[in-house]
């Protein structure tokens, strides 16, 4: 008989139990930080209305959405697809349930999203994202932008990553800047150029801008603008030096300074900067935007990002829901951490005690013994196997820190020996 | 502008944050018990090869599998679909990774599966299943069947369900019984009749059997067989009374007695019986089969079930991997528990302390204050809002147990008051 191909389909991360245990610990660490910052957990369906998902996708994303074929038995249903992020289902959720929610709605979603992008090493088609969002009704205070960044930063802290840098900007600054220079008509192009500026040589950026036919002077001003980065004081000073009257521009500068200074007040003096190269994609964001990098591992790119959006649910509701949120892409981050040897604790055994009955004669006793060790809070594997004792011990050593053999002698005398599989040391075990 | 439909598509469970918190607690309780019994967590992709999923589906399941359309950018990929259970991907996983696994492989999967069945109240098209499995290589000791049942039972214990009853049978008994009566040719029909026997009147069962043209005597014997239920001694005595020589039959009786007696030894004297009505579907299982019900809520049906299968990965590997496993269908169980008012603790607030800055003048201080309360292990929401104090307090009371207002006076004096939103009581709060 022909045997089937058993590898997971491409773009899927499938871990061995040991790696999975570390991955799950990371996920729990992140969830724990989010919850301790007062974010409420929700879960939206994996499958959602195609109408909803495609309405908000746009651009490349649309080509990456997995459509789902309705089954014969559920043919009555709406057209459907797999969610590609947490934000679109969140918008639907807020519009649907708003009368049962309290605002500001501090919410977290940790789950799998799906994007069928071109196959590429380190890019996944099914991946965990760990999101936090704060949604206001009508208004939302700017301090919440800082709260989101601080929460995400604390979560990353828990993963034992090397030193990080949070780069922050504000889309109002860029929008006001383009207004002042009368560049609204090529706003999208300039946004895209800034967004890609770091991936190419400076000459290339200048060439792109020159192609826009906006005149040498404005090319120079844009180049000057995107080079602005530094601490709150530096960035504020350089931006104010343009002398722009644009309300939007100056509001953006104020908000950026507020966010940065709040971060400095909470210990991020040396690890948060303002940086005009941060744009975070073409549309969607309207205020604060940020991303976190590992300066010693710049090649990794952004490991966490997000920003402020003015109207989350405009497609579903007449009410205004401004929000700010951010996300850690855990599947990709975990892959990169493995690649770069940043994962700690991978030798940790998943089980504390393996209890190994010598044979089946004292079955009831062995089950009870294992249960009593569990009651002490330990993870206990009771090893039932027809194999020889040597084979059972070999298995036990592969999953557990300690092994206890229960033979006739041990059971009669009530004296047990725990063997440390790491050191070989044997010590009496008292139940 | 036309506003889009924001309800989740039918058959999807979407919970409010309060309900979600309880659901997540249940899920964590189950995972915790599984891990303490030495089961290793793995996670298989949601999307798998259509070839793999359809090979094992069969019958009604095939009509319920969601096929996924490959995206433009990932058109190179294999045909794919959404997993409908954890067992099929587990079989693929074991065959794929067997050289990196230790056997017996004690494994758990807790995640979402997908079945597009006909819409029906209390049936979900996307649902959590919480599985445990023990997979052997070549052989697997019968004690593992009891270990799976005990683990699942302890997990259900943690959900504070009313008294439960585990009903156990063994497919070898039925197979041997049909051999002895020369009923192999109508084995499938009889299996199906027994599987449905409880949902209809006894006359109906007799009529179905009579339709098979197997003669009055054999109809009577089958009816006698399926009525057998009771404790290990009773069931063994009644089954042995048939006087059958079939090795399969007697092996099944021995195994059933071993499993039941092991359960009795661990405190399930009054809550585990042998019951010949338990079949668990048409194919797949080859030994022990079991299901758990709530006797005071029989209408709910089985809340947990599973069994022994002889060859998990026969489609993918030449090696033999016998296994035993079981599953708690948490999404459906949670829905039923809500319906029947069995959910406790639904008034629990997700946040411990809401810290409410009077205004933004002492921003840095307030962020620090909240962080220090978090460091004590509490879940803390820092409430930034442009609203009036009364509105902020109203919000705070909706999510938190206690509220602390940080105004000029409090900050200057360093004396803080925590208000218990439940009782209205105000007590000094010492940082």
* CATH architecture annotation of the largest domain in chain A: 2-Layer Sandwich
Average per-residue pLDDT of chain A, rounded, comes to 93
Oligomer category: homodimer
Find the structural class of chain A using helix and strand composition.
Answer: alpha+beta
Query: What count of structural domains of chain A?
Result: 2
Give the helix level of chain A as a range of percent: 25-40%
Rg over CA atoms of chain A:
27 Å
Biggest interface found? A-B, 114 and 115 residues
* Top CATH class of the largest domain in chain A: Alpha Beta
* Coarse morphology of chain A: elongated
Strand order of the largest sheet of chain A: 1-5-6-12-11-10-7-9-8
CATH H-tier superfamily of the largest domain in chain A: Bira Bifunctional Protein, Domain 2
Largest sheet of chain A: 9 strands, mixed
Tell me the strand percentage band of chain A.
15-25%
CATH level 3 topology of the largest domain in chain A:
BirA Bifunctional Protein, domain 2
How many β strands of chain A by DSSP? 17
If helices are DSSP runs of H or I spanning 4 or more residues, what is the number of helices of chain A?
15
Low-confidence stretches of chain A: none
Distance between the termini of chain A: 52 Å
